[in-house]
Amino acid sequence: MTERDAISGDAQRVADDDAAAESEPPAAASLDRGSLTPEQQLALEELLFRLADDEFVHAERLTEWQIYAPTIESDLALANVAQDEFGHARLWYDLLQELGYTEEECIWRRDAGDWTHATIVERPFADDGWGDAVVRTYLYDAAERVRLEALTDTSYAPLADRVGKVLAEEEYHRDHAVSWLERLASDDDARERLQAAVDDLFPHALSLFHPGEREDAIRAAGFRRESLTAMREEWLDTVIPTLEGYGLVVPEPGEVTRPDARGRDGTHTDAWFDLQEAFTATHREVDFETPARLRGEEA
């Protein structure tokens, strides 16, 4: 090889390295609000709204079980889970407010079709639905673990600062759900109710991993590096053996009939519109400035 060839080869390698560097997402916790491009901010908003909406709507449904759970301990436990989920939603909505949104725009004055939560969290509970609550919480919290672990090396520093706290609390939620799965699966009648809940909720749980229109931009910015497909497989590798271990039959994901409503794309079941109407009712009964004054904000 001539010296010219060697120099040419070195130049090509440098060019290749530069191109690779440009295609790599930013390093962990290297971005903040001031360093975001407009496209990155839109991608971050999509990610944050998914996180926040899932937690908020999940918590709204769980509050329906307060005073109705089968034991005092489970009543208190589920109330604590709902409170935690509201707190997690607040963490993510706060980040959206730092990007220019108001609380009213995030929650109270938002059109029902603009919410992007997965449909599993909006579904009404079955009439004899303690088994439904247990299965729902398990499927959701198992997915939440996968999702949060995928955010531990996020490039957005304010998001990275919050992930560890939420992960620790979600572990308690999963433990509570698994303990009740084991307890109910030991009884034939209760196991039948668990199976009915799996049949109903599993297709909706898959919507947790449905991509949005800015999925590529989310990963390119390093907000989340793992693909939704890989996360879905990790979740399936956890929940299928666990549920089957308790004598439950889990549908093959490829054979599941996908619900018409996906959630992530703004399409929802009829139950969502009733729920959203209910939890915004009090806010609509007062003028919009009153909640801001109560929070000490300027109108």
UniProtKB/TrEMBL annotation:
It comes from the Archaea. Pfam families: PaaA_PaaC. It is an enzyme of class 1 (oxidoreductase). InterPro entries: Aromatic_CoA_ox/epox, Ferritin-like, Ferritin-like_SF, PaaA_PaaC, PaaC. One of its GO terms (molecular function) is phenylacetyl-CoA 1,2-epoxidase activity. Keywords: Oxidoreductase. Residues 1-35 are annotated as: Disordered. Its EC number is 1.14.13.149. This is 1,2-phenylacetyl-CoA epoxidase subunit PaaC. It comes from Halobaculum halobium.
